[in-house]
Amino acid sequence: MIPATLRLTLIIAVLCYFIVILYLLKQKALNLKYTLLWLVAGAVMGVLVMVPELLVAIIHVFGIQDNMNGLFIFAIGFIIMILLSLTSIVSRQNRKIRTLTQELSILDKRVRELEERQKERRAE
Q1: Consecutive sets of 10 residues in the chain, 124 residues long: mean pLDDT of each?
Q2: Which one, of 84, 5, 74, lies nearest residue 37 by Cα?
Q3: Cβ distance 19 to 71 under 8 Å?
Q4: What CA–CA distance (Å, rounded) separates 84 from 21?
Q5: How far apart are alpha carbons 53 and 1 in whole angstroms?
Q6: What is the pLDDT of residue 20?
Q7: Residue 79 near residue 71 (C-beta atoms within 8 A)
Q8: What is the pLDDT at residue 45?
Q9: Do 49 and 11 contact (CB within 8 A), yes or no?
Q10: How far is CA 55 from CA 34, 51, 69, 71, 110, in A?
């Protein structure tokens, strides 16, 4: 299994990970709804560090022979899930920005038209 020094190092690393996530949340560098994804990732890492036998059992359920291969497969899968989540967030933000830009352009056009009408009324 995992040597005690490596397990202790991994526990400290996971705790530092949580501290960084909570610090970024406190500094408002991360939104609360997106922080949940990173907290779940940290919780999964914490559980796997505390109970490494769980990872071995899960890997063997999927029929993967080598533990490291299984770990890499799950890590890549988790990274793909995070990328998909972040891509959907970026897509939503892109749509919102496009809509806001269009609304701003329409409002700007209306303001210019009103200013022109007001100048015409003053000129009369």
Answers
A1: 84 94 90 83 89 87 86 87 88 96 97 94 84
A2: 84
A3: no
A4: 20
A5: 8
A6: 94
A7: no
A8: 87
A9: yes
A10: 26, 8, 12, 8, 61
As given in the structure block, the two tokens for residue 115 are 């200013």
Tokens at residue 113, please?
A: 């038209």
Instruction: Count Cβ atoms within 10 A of the Cβ of residue 114 and give its class: 0-12 exposed, 13-18 middle, 19 or more buried.
Output: exposed
pLDDT at 14: 93
User: CA distances (Å), 82 to each of 28, 29, 117, in order?
Assistant: 20, 18, 52
CA distance 13 to 21: 12
Q: How many CB atoms are located within 10 Å of the residue 11 CB?
A: 14
What DSSP string runs through the chain?
---HHHHHHHHHHHHHHHHHHHHHHHTTSS-HHHHHHHHHHHHHHHHHHH-HHHHHHHHHHTT---HHHHHHHHHHHHHHHHHHHHHHHHHHHHHHHHHHHHHHHHHHHHHHHHHHHHHHHHH-
Exposure of 75 in the CB half-sphere (CA atoms within 13 A): 8
Report field, pTM of the whole predicted structure over 0.85: no
